[in-house]
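Data deposition worksheet. Section B asks for the primary sequence of the deposited chain exactly as it was used as input, without tags or linkers unless they were present during the calculation. Section C holds the resulting structure in token form. Section D is free text for depositor observations; keep each observation to a single sentence. Incomplete worksheets are returned to the depositor.
Section A, Depositor: J.P.
Section B:
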Amino acid sequence: MKSATGILVVLSVVVGFWTLVRWAAHLLLGAPGLERDWVWGAFEMAVALVLFGAAGSFVGRIFTKNQRHDILTRMIEAMRRIARGDFSASVELPEIDGRGPFREVATSLNQMAESLARIEAMRREFISDVSHEIQSPLTSITGFARALRSPELDEADRLHYLDIIEAESSRLSRLGDNLLRLSALESRSQTLEPEAYRLDSQIRDVVLAAEPQWRDRAIEVSASLAPVQLRADRSMLGQVWTNLLHNAIKFTPRGGTIEIDARVSGDRVHVSFRDSGLGIAGEDIERVFERFFKADASRTAAAGGSGLGLAIARKIVELHGGRIEARSEGPGRGATFVVELLLDAC
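Section C:
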């Protein structure tokens, strides 16, 4: 409405001014000694250029002002929707706006909405995963606790049910501890406490501490560990080696093998854990470090656990400026996890 009014005003001014100019020109050209046709043509052209230039500028200003007002209105509405939790909001700008500051602000606003939408999706997925992981042991505990009330239950079954309840309670406790640890690592509120120590000795201690688990499954564990002097957070990296070893034990069938290797290359150390277990499908390689990720039913049934061990390991390695990756030739062909760290990691 404002644009239409502005155009009518401009046209009225142009017509009125043009009429006045033509009247003045007729008076001027009535003077003797002037070639009427030539002067009149040149005068008309000059006046026309001036008038249409001024009119175009005025109309352009009106359109630009209205366009900016429209863009600001869209931005404000989008921000209100985002504040209400609607992260699908976006600002679509007309092509006439070019690449000015309004487009930059709108692009940043759209990117912010997309980032918030991804974070919200991750939050919902995380809550769903945690609820699922908690529900499973709670269901077992509740079911076996009710079974213990049966007067017909013999002593052997009673002790068996109590063992299950204890194991599921421990699983819940580990889940809570791992969630707190992962949260601290992701928020970087847990600071590194570097010290110089022998990495090969630390890995040997981790293998010996887990001996009851791998011996119980008749798994053969071999370690080829070069002497490595490392400067890092000893406690945190100990958690990495423990998680990787327990992960290998869980996914390696009875009678399988686990090979651990540590070697120095330049200013870096490479540590690998290779197992002869279930392996990883190609499409799952990039996802094994995600929280609660479990590739398929067979791996889930064989492994158990909370699905947080590898996510914690990755966060700790990244906190030390290193990298960790998973490799596998496919299901049934084992898996290898490789960690690369600087000898002076922190």
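Section D:
The beta strands are 194-198, 220-225, 229-233, 257-265, 268-275, 323-327, 335-342.
The chain is about 60% helix and 15% strand.
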